[in-house]
Amino acid sequence: SDATFNHIVHQCAEHGTALRFIGWGEPLLHPKITYWIMKAHSYGLLTHLNTNGSKLDRIMAVRLVVAGLTSMKFSFQGVDRKSYREMRNIDWFDQLIETIGVMVEARGDKAFPWIALSTTITDETEEAVHAFKVRVGHLVNELSVGHTIFDFMDLSAVRLNDADRARVTIIPDTESQSLAATLARDYSTKSER
Questions:
Q1: Does domain 2-148 have CATH number 3.20.20.70?
Q2: Which Gene3D superfamilies does the record cross-reference, listed alphabetically (predicted)?
Q3: Which residue among 13, 23, 64, 78 is the one 20 to 30 A from 125 at the CA level?
């Protein structure tokens, strides 16, 4: 409710705490998201939101800029159309990159919102990761690539066909081995310095 949000904004302002719109659903689905960002901005609060980009169009992008959004992060999985589709179960990779471009265009030459992109990978090659960075790196202020961790995933709650479910169940072991090798390599490289 507006009363609850106003209470939160006053508490954040009193303590100099930023306000983040993340988790438990897509923030851009809320009909008052730009109003709430504008209200928080009017109190001098830094504001951030995470988005999958599915509800971001030109109008919403302009509204977010005008509202005073400080930063936003686009959430991906994978580094190409195939890996995104495998992890998100939707063929929307290219459209998401276009959507980021829409946000960049709406921001124009302003410093804010700071635009970040974060993705996680499973078994993608270094070449595929590099190609992704080349393709999207110029669009955003910050780009991070991490590893998908399946330990917390309830596979019975995910819409997968039998072949995909079988593939996903073997990834954690492969991922753990790959991550351990990467950490060992990184550690030995740092200790040699």
A1: yes
A2: Aldolase class I
A3: 23
pTM over 0.70: yes
Which of these, 138, 135, 64, 48, lies nearest to 103 by C-alpha position?
64
Amino acid identity, position 82: K
As a whole number of angstroms, the distance between CA 41 and CA 45 comes to 5
Please name which of 133, 131, 135, 158 lies closest in space to residue 144, comparing C-alpha atoms: 133
Q: What is the pLDDT of residues 87-102, one digit of tens each?
A: 777 888 899 999 999 9
20-51, pLDDT tens digit by residue?
998 778 999 999 999 999 999 999 999 999 99
Q: What does each C-alpha distance from 45 to 15, 50, 60, 160 come to in angstroms? A: 10, 17, 20, 41
Hey, how many other C-beta atoms are within 10 angstroms of the C-beta on 91? 11
Beta-sheet strand order (sheet of 19-21):
19-21, 47-51, 71-75, 114-121, 142-147
Token reading at 44: 């001098």
